[in-house]
């Protein structure tokens, strides 16, 4: 079983903390799903006030600070250093956004920032694509976890490039991987876990649901189902029909 820098999670579900209708609704989503990891943004926390921060702390979950909104390696490195001070953890979800419209990661800035942060003792969770060359560079930089996107952030499209993600998973069997961003339905999360990914991270699909707490629970159930399926050895797919009812003994029936 792959872990996250030595930490194993009771449930492979990480939730964001933005875009909820209210802090109380967000708290209910965490409690009803039992999600064990919360991503937090230094920029948001600074504007949100002590009450919000106390509530997040009271959830008793692992905090995964992120560098959301950073568009250069330098900006991401500075934000990560401030987040380590503020949240008291070496974990950092590294986002270096390369394109304002697609919110696609900047592969060059991402590797530059990952090298600097790993050398500085951070445990880096880079938000990346399914690109295997980029994945290799991030692993060489010292990342033991990768966070490939399912689809663009906030799109809800699910696993956009199934072949690419499947190939990425197979190419780095020892690296923990979290599908991050673009998941819209619990079935997308189940599919990610079934493919052998180690967890999912999502925000919008829960925060913008009509009932966020119930949707968070639905994602939790899907994560359990997907992880159990992966551990149970899913059957292989075939091009031909194979009868599921045995034909032996049919003659004397
Ligand atoms: C919370 C966070 O870190 C987001 O940037 C993350 O990528 C989630 O994406 P979705 O909102 O598409 O789930």
From TrEMBL:
<dbReference type="GO" id="GO:1990107">
    <property type="term" value="F:thiazole synthase activity"/>
</dbReference>
<dbReference type="Pfam" id="PF05690">
    <property type="entry name" value="ThiG"/>
</dbReference>
<comment type="subunit">
    <text>Homotetramer. Forms heterodimers with either ThiH or ThiS.</text>
</comment>
<keyword id="KW-0784">Thiamine biosynthesis</keyword>
<dbReference type="InterPro" id="IPR033983">
    <property type="entry name" value="Thiazole_synthase_ThiG"/>
</dbReference>
<keyword id="KW-0704">Schiff base</keyword>
<keyword id="KW-0963">Cytoplasm</keyword>
<comment type="pathway">
    <text>Cofactor biosynthesis; thiamine diphosphate biosynthesis.</text>
</comment>
<dbReference type="InterPro" id="IPR013785">
    <property type="entry name" value="Aldolase_TIM"/>
</dbReference>
<comment type="function">
    <text>Catalyzes the rearrangement of 1-deoxy-D-xylulose 5-phosphate (DXP) to produce the thiazole phosphate moiety of thiamine. Sulfur is provided by the thiocarboxylate moiety of the carrier protein ThiS. In vitro, sulfur can be provided by H(2)S.</text>
</comment>
<dbReference type="InterPro" id="IPR008867">
    <property type="entry name" value="ThiG"/>
</dbReference>
<feature type="active site" description="Schiff-base intermediate with DXP">
    <location>
        <position position="93"/>
    </location>
</feature>
<feature type="binding site">
    <location>
        <position position="154"/>
    </location>
    <ligand>
        <name>1-deoxy-D-xylulose 5-phosphate</name>
    </ligand>
</feature>
<protein>
    <recommendedName>
        <fullName>Thiazole synthase</fullName>
        <ecNumber>2.8.1.10</ecNumber>
    </recommendedName>
</protein>
<feature type="domain" description="Thiazole synthase ThiG">
    <location>
        <begin position="5"/>
        <end position="246"/>
    </location>
</feature>
<feature type="binding site">
    <location>
        <begin position="203"/>
        <end position="204"/>
    </location>
    <ligand>
        <name>1-deoxy-D-xylulose 5-phosphate</name>
    </ligand>
</feature>
<feature type="binding site">
    <location>
        <begin position="181"/>
        <end position="182"/>
    </location>
    <ligand>
        <name>1-deoxy-D-xylulose 5-phosphate</name>
    </ligand>
</feature>
<keyword id="KW-0808">Transferase</keyword>
<comment type="similarity">
    <text>Belongs to the ThiG family.</text>
</comment>
């Amino acid at each position: 079983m792959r872990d996250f820098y030595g930490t194993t999670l009771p449930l492979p579900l990480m939730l964001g903390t933005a875009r909820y209708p209210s802090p109380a609704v967000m708290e209910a989503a965490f409690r009803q799903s039992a999600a064990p990891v919360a991503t937090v943004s230094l920029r948001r926390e600074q504007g949100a006030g002590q009450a919000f921060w106390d509530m997040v702390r009271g959830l008793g979950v692992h905090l995964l600070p992120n560098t959301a909104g950073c568009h250069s390696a330098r900006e991401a490195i500075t934000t990560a250093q401030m987040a380590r001070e503020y949240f008291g953890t070496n974990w950092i979800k590294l986002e270096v956004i390369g394109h304002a419209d697609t919110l696609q990661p900047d592969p060059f800035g991402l590797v530059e920032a990952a090298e600097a942060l790993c050398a500085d003792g951070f445990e880096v969770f880079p938000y990346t694509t399914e690109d295997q060359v980029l994945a290799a560079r991030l692993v060489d930089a010292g990342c033991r976890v990768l966070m490939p996107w399912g689809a663009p952030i906030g799109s809800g499209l699910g696993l956009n490039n199934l072949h690419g993600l499947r190939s990425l998973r197979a190419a780095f069997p020892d690296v923990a991987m979290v599908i991050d961003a673009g998941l819209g339905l619990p079935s997308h999360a189940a599919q990610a876990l079934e493919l052998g990914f180690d967890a999912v991270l999502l925000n919008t699909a829960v925060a913008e649901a009509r009932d966020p707490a119930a949707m968070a629970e639905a994602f939790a159930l899907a994560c359990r189902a997907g992880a159990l399926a992966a551990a149970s050895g899913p059957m292989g797919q075939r091009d031909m029909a194979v009868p599921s009812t045995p034909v032996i003994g049919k003659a004397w029936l």
